[in-house]
Structure formats: C-alpha cells, structure tokens
C-alpha cells in the first residue's frame, strides 16, 4: 500500500478582498469598513429574527434566482479551471490576474471573462433584491448567526457520500475531509460577515465580495472532493 500524506494546509482565499485595489474609491471604502468593523461586530439579531432568516434562506434556495446564481458560479469555476486555486474580492483584481494568466484557463478572452463575471454579479444582485428581507437580516447578523442562517449551504460530505467499507487509511482520508469541510464552512461565514460591512457604504464592493465568498467556497468544495478521491485511491 502506498503511503499517502494528507495535506496539512488548505489554501482558501475567500478573504482576498482585503488586498489593495487600484481604484481610489475601493481603497477609501475598505478603510472605512475597517474603521467601522468594531461597531459592526456589535450588531446582532434576536432569536426570533434568526429563526425567520433561516426559514427565508431555505425558501430562497428553492427559487429560480438562487438556481441561476449558483449555475453562474459553477460555469465561472469550470472556466477558471481546477488548477487555478485563486480568488479575488474585486473585479479589478480579477482582471489584473486574468491578463497574465488567462492562457491557463478556459476563458477565450478577457472580454469573455468580463462578461461572465458581470453576469454572475448581476444574477447575485437579482437574487439579493428578490430576497431583500432575508439579506436585511443577514447584513445585521454576527458571524455565529450568519453561520446558522446559511447552514443549509454547508456540505457534510462529498457528492455520493463517503465509502461504506473503509479501513484505517480511508478513515484518515475521511477525517481530513471532514476537517477541511468544517474549515471552508467557517471561512464562508466569516467572508460573508466581512462583505456585509460594505453593504451600506459601497454596494458594488458588497456584491463583489459576496460573490468572492460564494465562488471560493464552491471552488474549495470541488477541490476537497478531488483530494479525497485521490487520497482514497492510494489506500
């Protein structure tokens, strides 16, 4: 049996929108959001509000707006390619990276990338606007409450589930996978909480940061699934 070394570091970049932007407005907004972060962290929903938000989130997941948005993320990540473990919080950062790396993706041109990116952002806007009551709750929630509200998004296993028949090696693979899934769940909640800081100051940045959180989460979930299968294959 080959010895398989489980990865000890999972590269998740959902907080990348803290990096510098070349747009002055984005920089100023980021600085304001940092200053206001302490105040934001004091925000909290009542138990009744959290329960209501949880119901609204489950309802949203069955809507066409949600399905369209999720499909746009899937299309985006498919063209990005599994080898490109990158994520950026602003369109400017994505464009800068694409100009130097588009040949490593399935995007045919910078123009195509920009169109697909803008389409994803637009579908996110449609989904948020169609569920304004839910997102009003989420924008006032703390990280723990956000985690409770979006819990239906979290994946407890990989597509098809874990193997029924295991051994110590497979069990180690599954244990790593469980830890990795827990990690990206936590980072998704943190990323959405941080993105919410822009909701009342720069709506454009809010949507870009929210897309970053969702896109990166989906990318990392697919990556974890692939790594688990590779791990089990050598047991």
Protein architecture, described:
The protein is mostly helical and 235 residues long. The protein has one domain. The chain contains nine helices and no strands. The chain has helices spanning 24-41, 47-60, 64-80, 91-101, 110-130, 132-138, 143-149, 168-196, 203-233. It starts with 23 loop residues before the first helix and ends with a helix. 32% of the residues are buried. The model is unreliable at 1-40 (pLDDT under 50).
Give a quick precis of the structure:
This protein is mainly alpha-helical.
Architecture blueprint of SSEs:
Blueprint: H1 24-41, H2 47-60, H3 64-80, H4 91-101, H5 110-130, H6 132-138, H7 143-149, H8 168-196, H9 203-233
Helix pairs in contact: 2-6, 3-5, 3-9, 4-5, 7-8, 8-9
End-to-end C-alpha gap? 6 Å
- Topology order in helix (H) and strand (E) letters: HHHHHHHHH
Helicity, as a percent range: 55-70%
Protein structure class: mainly alpha
Query: How many strand units?
Result: 0
Tally of alpha and pi helices: 9
> pLDDT below 50 for ≥5 consecutive residues: which ranges?
1-40
Total individual domains: 1
Largest pleated sheet: none
Shape: globular
Radius of gyration: 19 Å
Mean pLDDT figure: 85
Share of residues in strands: under 5%
Signal peptide: 1-21
Protein name: Lipoprotein
Keywords: Signal
